Structure prediction request, 100 residues.
Amino acid sequence: MTAETDTPRTAGSCCSSTGSCDDGAAGARAGVTTVYEVKGMTCGHCEGAVSEEISGIEGVTSVKAEASSGRVTVVSTAPLSEDAVRAAVDEAGYELVGRA
Prediction:
C-alpha cells in the first residue's frame, strides 16, 4: 500500500475516505427541486426568457426550461410560492399550467 491510500481524507478534500469524489456537501446544499409545466414555449429563446424571469425569484439557484416538453425544473433554497412563479412566467410571456 502506498502512503496516499493510507492517508485519511480530510473534510473538504477532493475525495472522501470511501473513495468517493463527493464529501456529501453537495446533497446538503441541493435545495428544493420543483418541476412546472409551462404552455407556449417553442424554442431556445422561449427557454431563455422563462429561465431568466424565474431566476429573478429570491431563493432560486437553478432553472432548466425545456421547450420540447414544456417543463421547467427549478431548484431553490426553499419551496417557492406558485404565485411568484406564475408572475415570472407571465412576465416572460408564457402561461404557467401548474406543477408537473
Remarks:
- The helical segments are 3-6, 25-28, 44-55, 82-92.
